[in-house]
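ugh finaly. both done.
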Amino acid sequence: MKILAVDLGHARTGLAICDEGEILASPLMVLPSYNWDKLLIQVAEQVEKTGAGAVVIGLPKNMDGTEGESAQNARDFAQKLSEKISVFVHLQDERCTTMVAHTYLNDTNVRGKKRKAVVDAVAATIILQDYLSAHS
């Protein structure tokens, strides 16, 4: 089944999707995050549009495994999204995904405005690929 991943951010939120076989995650898009009500609607629309059978939301834990304000925001978003859609919403530990995304973009020499535009979708792709690897 297709699975949609969400990397929540303060300014931008990245989305990624996997293939029906749950083998390969790919970046989908980046959405502005300034209005969470609008973001919830946009993510729900993408679930419908892509035919996703589940959603994975990155859970930003601290390096020691504790959870702070960002993790609570992710939990709140997941709860609100699950009230809007009929598919299961999972939370996936996302420690270091943005750092890994920046490393990938460095390796491929993506810089400047283009980098800013894709880093969140790349982070969502890493979250989803981690989820797929853990559940295969």
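ok and the 2nd:
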Amino acid sequence: MPLTVVVGISGGIAAYKSAYLVSALKKRGYDVHVLMTQNALKFVGAVTFETLTGNAVLTDTFERKEEYDVKHVSLAKKADMLIIAPATADILAKAAAGIADDMLTTTLLAAACPVVFAPAMNEAMFADTATQHNISMLKKRGYYVMDTGEGLLACGDVGSGRMKEPDEIIDYAHDVFKSLHDMAGIRVLVSAGPTREMIDPIRFLSNRSTGKMGYSIAQAAINRGADVTIVSGPTALEVPPKARMVHVVSAAEMASQMIAFSQQADIIVMAAAVADYTPRTVSSQKIKKGADMTLELVRTEDILSELGANKKDNQLLMGFAAETQDYEVNAKEKMNKKNLDIIALNDVSRIGEGFESDSNNITLFLKDGTSQDLGSDSKTALSRRIMDVLFAQYQKSR
């Protein structure tokens, strides 16, 4: 799946260089999208960039397409990186202040990916206290602002303020991306959510899992550049952008898909709450009310044991132990019995944590006998810490 780079073009004479930038990004295999301000359109036409990218150039926040889509939000989610080139004094000021009054600035504000600014303006404008303050603010907030080049400016002055050359911008952006995406090329397989074991066409056995922990782990891996596949039971969650999504319902379906995808995975995280039992028989018709009913259950396939038994060299396998008593003993026993490299223990008896919550508590036990208490925190924060440990252990195994 090609990485998506969104190039934002603001109204400066250096906009003509952005055509080469976009063309060079496209030739390197990126999926390139272009956003232009109304002032940028006065320097270079949108058709130029549509021809170079094969994608429509977006300029109007309220532009209507055939399908309903909030474009500045959907494109912000899709983007792996934003490059603003040229970044005028105006766009730097708006970004620093959080102003969102056009397609480019609204997309910028909605984006969670790395953002690179390539400033371009008159020397005096660049040196002005306000501009330097805005650049300082952007850097403090985690944006990446390039230096400017020196030479003859469009106004005839000589000095700093020239936009860096397109190849320099691409090299800079590549270095930023590489530093943040240290898991690029690593294939991560995550199971998430509950399973449903049907009793009749409208009734089923299930559990309280919402899938939030598994989806958060998947997103943490995606954010670091990993190639992520999610095998998920039924949830109400939005599919993480950039994930390969496989929807299942029953434990048997999850077992089939997890075992199949495990053959190519480098890291496997079994975060799903899989039913241990399923009805021996399923009624083809709705069961009517009547006398008391006995439901005969049989064991489902133990997916984690199957994955552990067939684990390949250099493949990292992690499971979860949701416990209400004898926490450490049960977690370590499960890790050893199922041939896991790491197990995440969470105490699901705590109020407001675990199932049906945005928070969790995690202690990791590793096969080498060490452990790490990640504490109680949001599932998003815990997932980032889990991914730190997983990646460190994966590197050790190589």
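summary for the 2nd one i guess: Residues 327 and 345 are 7 Å apart (CA to CA).
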